[in-house]
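batch job 7 of whatever, protein = Adenosine 5'-phosphosulfate reductase
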Amino acid sequence: MINLLNQPGGYRDPEVSPEGPKETAALPEGVATQNAQLVEEWADKLYSATAGEILDWAHTHAPGKLVVTLSMENTVLAELAERHLPDADFLFLDTEYHFPETLEVADEVEARYPTHRLVRAKAQLTREEQNEVYGPNLYLRAPSACCRMRKVEPLAVHMSPYAGWVTGLRRADGPTRAEAPALSLDKTGRLKISPLVTWSLEGTAEFERAEDLIIHPLTRQGYPSIGCATCTLPVAEGEDPRAGRWAFAAKTECGLHE
């Protein structure tokens, strides 16, 4: 049994994560140095580059294995990785709060791109264990704590084998991402590569249609940005694409890109 702290209702303080690994292993010093040099030399040059140019650059220059993070909101990154990053793994954060459609897309991605290992990262506690330890509906009472335990910490742990990661960040996703770089360092010194930064929602949808990609059905039902089912609502036409994320809280990011 996990030890509980003396919090109201007998539940553990959500600011205290469960026991177990939570951090990313340190990079070898030489890899960290190379990454920093690469960002210094190339970040400005890649700021407005195409997705293909960015990924070809990553395949040539990254000083170690890369992982492509997939939310399964769309499968554009999976397709582009198939073309430009043949050795990359895929990583999906299975929070256990996803829409059933999101899990179906993950299964389809695994079947369609069998040469890329799909890592399904989960939290230390199952959804049921989290309810027992921290109380029910933590995502409503302390959404940042829920995201930390079910997204940020699992990503950190599973990032250890890699020199860098590829994200689906787009500047068009909203004000918090309007200046997102194509290439940067994360707080562990790993490369953070965002080949879709210049893409629009419309351009993404057009690429999906043109290339006959796997489509998340909710993106055609008013959900331009999809997270956990408990924390995602549809948005009205013309609204900020991320307006439906944590609409019940003063929160705009899960912590993965802060």
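notes: The chain has one domain: 28-231.
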